[in-house]
Design a protein that fits this description.
Low-confidence stretches: none
Strand order of the largest sheet: 1-2-3-4-5-6-9-10
Helix content: 25-40%
Number of strands: 10
Structural class: alpha/beta
Largest sheet: 8 strands, mixed
Shape: globular
Number of helices: 8
Strand content: 15-25%
């Protein structure tokens, strides 16, 4: 399974973000997340090493400045500085401070680059986290399923998860965010099944995000009986939204 052994890694080519310099705010030696998605490229939470040490704001600032200096000196192109890594980045208690430092360093070294956060949206109702997410260029928020049962099957959240509360939290962006959704098939869930797809499209219409990222499996997954969708299949599935004028990026 995928592991990042530095706080800052890459740049790597991202299907959705281009040349992406990654930042891992979670422990170096294993996954730490409040979701345990059946498709996560970092594996199951239980496969973690028990490491709970997260980098501090100072650690991240030092690592990011060093990497940006190196990339700039080498003429390396960066499209996005992206918070991803070994789980949910907003779980790092220094997340708001780290965002502020990252924006300042971006402006100094790569002012044309976007700052992106890949999040499962579970902490969007935390005012400190929400305020930080409002500052970045691309707050990319995940909703994979339109029902509590679907979320339980695909994302396997720890503790209590209230989909309606998350949706209400996302409404506070007033559409100025990116919605990210994984399309997949498993023995117990199919993104293309009529009720799942209709419910998801209703959520899209309610939130009216400025962009939607629809993608499918690309790397090894911890659940082994999953099937991916083709780009043409996904395009056909989201056709009603495309026809309504939604901006949808579809990646196989």
């Amino acid at each position: 399974m995928l592991r990042f052994h530095n706080i800052v890694f890459g740049p790597i080519h991202s299907r959705r973000l281009g040349s992406s310099l990654g930042i891992n705010l979670l422990p170096e030696n294993g996954k730490l997340c409040n979701f345990d998605c059946i498709y996560c490229e970092c594996g199951w939470n239980r496969d973690g090493t028990g490491d709970r040490v997260m980098p501090s704001a100072g650690d991240v600032a030092a690592a990011l400045e060093s990497k940006l200096e190196e990339c700039a000196a080498s003429g390396i192109h960066i499209d996005s500085i992206t918070f991803s890594g070994h789980g949910e980045p907003t779980l790092n208690r220094d997340f708001p401070e780290i965002i502020g430092t990252t924006l300042a360093l971006r402006d100094r070294y790569y002012p044309q680059a976007k700052v992106s956060v890949l999040s499962n949206a579970t902490t969007v109702c935390d005012e400190r986290v929400f305020g930080a997410l409002r500052r970045v260029d691309n707050p990319i928020m995940k909703i994979d399923a339109s029902t509590a049962g679907g979320v339980a099957t695909v994302n396997r959240p720890s503790g209590h998860y209230d989909l309606e509360r998350v949706i209400s939290g996302l409404e506070r962006f007033h559409g100025d965010f990116v919605l990210q959704t994984m399309f997949l098939k498993s023995p117990s869930f199919d993104s293309s099944e009529s009720a799942n797809l209709t419910g998801w499209m209703d959520i899209v219409r309610r939130l009216a995000p400025r962009e939607i990222m629809v993608y499918t499996l690309d790397r090894e997954t911890p659940e082994k009986d999953l099937a991916k969708f083709g780009v043409e299949e996904m395009t056909a599935l989201v056709r009603p939204l495309l026809d309504e004028g939604f901006a949808i990026q579809i990646r196989g």
